[in-house]
Specification:
The complex is a heterodimer of chains A (313) and B (228).
Chain A: H1 2-11, H2 19-35, H3 38-74, E1 77-81, H4 87-99, E2 103-109, H5 111-122, E3 141-146, H6 152-159, E4 165-169, H7 172-213, H8 216-224, H9 229-269, H10 280-308
Antiparallel strand pairs in A: 1-3, 1-4, 2-3
Helix pairs in contact in A: 2-9, 3-7, 3-9, 3-10, 7-10, 9-10
Chain B: E1 2-10, E2 16-25, E3 30-34, H1 41-46, E4 56-61, E5 64-65, H2 74-78, E6 81-85, H3 96-105, H4 111-124, H5 140-152, E7 158-162, H6 170-185, E8 189-193, H7 197-202, E9 206-211, E10 214-219
Parallel strand pairs in B: 3-8, 3-9, 6-7, 7-8
Antiparallel strand pairs in B: 1-2, 1-4, 4-5, 9-10
The chains are: A alpha+beta (313), B alpha/beta (228).
Amino acid sequence: MKVAVLSVMKAGVNTVMKFRTLGRHAREGGKNIYRNGWMTVASVGAVTTTLILVGVFIALMLNLNQIATNVEKDVEIKVLVELTAEEGQIEDLESKLKDIPEVESVNFSSKEDELNRLIESMGEEGQAWELFEQDNPLNDAFVVKTTDPNDTFDVAENIKNFDYVNEVNYGQQVVEKLLSFTKYARYIGAALIIGLVFTAIFLISNTIKLTIMARSKEIGIMKLVGATNSFIRWPFFIEGMLLGVLGSLIPIGATVGGYYYLYNNLRDKIQFTFVELLPFNPFAWQLALILLSIGAFIGVWGSVMSVRKFLKV
Amino acid sequence: MIEMKDVNKTYPNGVTALQGIDLSIAQGEFVYIVGPSGAGKSTLVGMMFREEKHTSGSITINGIDLNKLKERKVPQLRRNIGVVYQDFKLLPRLTVYENIAFALEVLEESPKNIKKRVMEVLDLVKLKNKARHIPDQLSGGEQQRVSIARAIVNHPKMMIADEPTGNLDPDTSWDIMQIFEEINAKGTTVIMATHSKEIVNTIRKRVIAVESGRIVRDESRGEYGYEI
């Protein structure tokens, strides 16, 4: 009788997994990688192909986003002050500009500053303007920046009605077009990346489903021998994760290497334009981490979803 | 040990496989289940480890009431029952050793105990030299011995064999029967569904005959009783 009680206890279903069992599952999952041979190659291939696309796309989108942000930062409103305005009136105007809630910063630029900047920007030809230093025809100006670049238009129209304002410049149509372009570019980019990730998940879970379908009989046998569902599921979980990680290695190498090459070659050529790429370090490593995570996630997701169907024996 | 009271089994397609089964098997017995093909032998033994679910009546196995057994606890039932099939049901990609060890791994035994115990049963079924082979490299008799080793490796209280000699030649069948007798001699209940007249009439044990889903005969030291 005592023996019987003992053996019942021994055969009881453990709810808490022992640590060495986790080790066993990891080994099993690893072994399945090579036991599955070509199926492994197919799954890893599917992950690789899609992640290369995702990687290139993320790099492209984040850089476009960076460029758009830089451009937006440069959007400013130039308020030219009436030539006849006196010092006190200019100060009034400044405080009025600062009181607009959407405004982030207001900088005064005297007509001397304006002339100097003009001379500098024109290089050799600019020297002709030096003649005007004695009799400066330019206006004093305020450079106004809004917190949200999208408010530029409304704020500029508002400022036009202020006293002592001669003219308001903000590159009207250019700014509007640019802003709507960057807005849509972001939406479309985000949608495409999400679409690609889901395509990848679908592709991979289908491939993994094939490898598991071939093993549905084995899963049935395991259950008849007394394996619990989680005991069967764990090696698949680890196998899926390994597949995803393996599949992300080539995309990581390709995107990191490719970005290194492009960054070093393009940086000098575009140095003086408003375009500025995200620096290789840390961007490339962040990208690598993102790809690794996506790979592991879709591998695990694909295999756990697929094995669920076959556990009902 | 095994108690069945008024057990019925009807498949979803309306076919009645078993009806009014009353059965009691004590610990340590050796029982043959005989009967024509399609009489319900496989269904009867399958219900004992929840490969098949009965439709009505009560079944108690090793003190577990199957009517109250939750799906989640089914592995607990199966771990106390070693099962041997006609088609062996070995995991094709695992070695002989790994196949047997699997039944202990699900119990989360320590690797040291697993190794010791697997070697013991490999010795019992005389397959120590084939431990690293995969099932496809073995003969039918050898594969059946592996599945028997797997069935008994965790010291189950009972062993169920569904036509274990169905795919084997006569000589091999006698080897297998010898192993069953050894297991039974150590106190394990053995329940064996079979078609083999020679075996039943030579190794005399309790015989339960099933026909058209009903128990028609239950004799200790009985005969096969059918012409093949």
